[in-house]
Each structure stands twice: as C-alpha cells, then as structure tokens.
Design goal:
The protein is built from 4 helices and no strands. The chain is mainly α and 78 residues long. The longest helix has 21 residues. The mean pLDDT is 75.
C-alpha cells in the first residue's frame, strides 16, 4: 500500500475538525515549500485537489473550505 493510500485511509477515519487541523498544517508546510521549490514541482494545492474526491464530500470547493476555516478560526478567537 502506498503512502498516499495509507494517508487516505487515515483521513477517512478522522473527524472533520481533525482533518481541518491537518489541512492547516499542510497549508503551512506548503507556504514554507513555496519558498524553496523551483518552478518544476507540482504545487501542493494541485495535489490536494486531486485527493479531495477521496475525502467525504461536503459539496464545498477548496476555496469555500478555506474561507470557512478562516472565518471559524477568527470567530473562535474573539
């Protein structure tokens, strides 16, 4: 079983809040990676879009999901 398949299996058993935490961390890693990569590597957003279909579908686009996460983060802080 590939690492991607193992990751997908783990994501399927996690709660949505745990997946959101992981997604935020991956976004952070992506921002760090962007500084170090040459233009030849596949952007992390493109990779995430490819695996979005294997995670239970909420009917939201990647952008809608991000906006919702940001709203939740800042509403909770207040």
């Amino acid at each position: 079983m590939s690492t991607l398949e193992k990751t997908i299996n783990l994501l399927n058993v996690l709660s949505e809040s745990q997946i959101e935490t992981i997604y935020s961390f991956v976004q952070f890693l992506s921002s760090q990676q962007t500084r170090k990569t040459s233009g030849s590597e596949k952007p992390l957003d493109e990779i995430l879009e490819n695996i979005v279909g294997v995670i239970p579908d909420t009917g939201k686009t990647l952008e809608e999901y991000r906006e919702e996460r940001m709203r939740e983060r800042y509403e909770t802080a207040n």
